[in-house]
Write a structure and sequence with these properties.
180 residues; alpha/beta; 6-stranded parallel sheet; two-stranded parallel sheet; 6 helices; 8 strands; 24% strand
Length: 180
Amino acid sequence: MGDPVLTEIYYFSGTGNSLYAAKRLAERLGGRFLPMAAVGEREEVKTAAGCVGLVFPVYYGDLPALVREFAKKLRCAPDAYVFAVCTYGGAAMASLRSLRKALKRGGTRLSVGLGVHMPQNAFLKPKEDRAAVYADAEKRLKILAEKISARRRGVFYENVLLELMMVPMQPLVIRPACKR
């Protein structure tokens, strides 16, 4: 029996891209945002919010270890709408699938997985126009907020073709820190 008005967005951000996305979504959805790291030591993270979001970067094609551990501890109301927004410089890859599995371990179900392209941070992309990427991200975040407000379900992100091409190579690039 979550509160249908309250939206809580938990975020992890290494470089600021996911923090930016979490702030913009919180503004658009009328919710509050909280750092995952601030509650990471708890055995469980309980929320009565009717709408719960997780915003995080994609690390080498998967979830950062902190996000995976947080997701396992998250306990939401059975009727909560749970959304995830991953930020990436290349593609979402396995991140949303991994998140769905981690949440399920804790008894939480992911309602929708979303993605937004942000500037690459793991390495430099030649000729990446960061201003254009941020402008596109701002438009995308508006669309994602609309999907969340409408309680859409499923998986929505760009670069699906890139992901399909990269999946066979993913085991070569996932760092051990992401596999915990």
